Amino acid sequence: MSKLSTDRIIQIILLVIIAAGFVLVGFMMKPSTPAMGGQKPGGPPGAPVSGGKGNGETNRIAVVTETVELRTVSTFIRINGDVVSDVSIDIYPDAQGKLIERKVKLGSYVHKGDIIGVVDPSTPGQVYTISNVRSTITGTVTAVNAHVGDTVHTGTSIAVIGDLANLSIITYIPERFITNIKTGLSAQVSFEAFPGTEFEARVIQLNPVVDPASRSLETKLEMTDPDPRIRAGMFATIRLITQERQQVVAVPATAVTSYYEDKAVFVPKENGTVERRIVTTGLASDDLVEITSGLSRGEEVVIQGLSSLTDGTAVRIVKGVSTEE
Question: CB under 8 Å to 216, separation ≥6 — which residues?
């Protein structure tokens, strides 16, 4: 075979290879034909390409509801006070002189008429009969103000004696709160010495005059059930009930929302939506609001999940589970 014939054969083979390459590239770049009707292969006619659950439950707002009941609603103020003896008396000598004997010490229990000290009224060059200092009440010595060797006179307190069987609490009410303060109001009292324990007390006395310096009203409370653990001088934290309504329709404060100039709550309906209900409110505490009209005992009311609600919103009730506002 001649050299010319061999070259021609090689050229033909190269042309065939190049042509085959173009055909292969064209086939690979050809777009695939979509299924008829936009359906997924093997799916029923008219079925959507992307599947998923229906939106009926997904679009509902999760809320927590509560049954409306009769409750006690109260308002209060927090104040501090001191435990004091109901009766506390300074004991004074009848004569001026030197205290030569003291017969009591702090915490001693004495009876009325007991001698608590002896004063010698003698002076240089003059000798007088000693003068006994007697207790004028029965009680416990709560303070000792004079010591043996002190020179005392009729205006010097030798000791303070208090009746610790009858304790009270003295507090001072700021002027802005005194409108609602009256005798008989109840209070819960707590002490740092007894964490987690509350003692019942009530207001028994109001000073008729407001202190012009502190702009406060001195108020006395007594313990409902005296406890021997409570001592004079203790610091008391007082939760004084200023107003109270018993057995009234009330809902948690979180259930009440503002609607223009009105107050409203959301009440679930049988069709799965909520109704915005305009209500009239009464006394309100930190956690409860009295409802005087617009809502009845036994109805359900939304207490959590209100931020996304409006009249007619579809909801999903989740009992006893918190929802994000």
Answer: 172, 173, 174, 175, 210
pTM (two decimals): 0.61
Q: Pick from 127, 162, 197: which residue ends a domain?
A: 162
Q: Which amino acid would we find at residue 268?
A: P
Q: Domain for residue 267, yes or no? A: yes
Looking at residue 202, the DSSP 8-state letter turns out to be E
Q: One-letter amino acid identity for 112? A: K
Nearest Cα to Cα of residue 91 among 32, 141, 165: 141
Q: Per residue in 233-249, pLDDT tens?
A: 999 999 999 988 999 99
8 Å CB contact between 235 and 192? yes
pLDDT tens per residue across span 25-73: 566 665 544 443 444 444 444 334 333 444 456 688 999 999 999 999 9
Tokens 């997924």 correspond to 40
| Residues 8, 4: Cα–Cα separation, whole Å | 6
- 272 and 234 both lie in a single domain: no
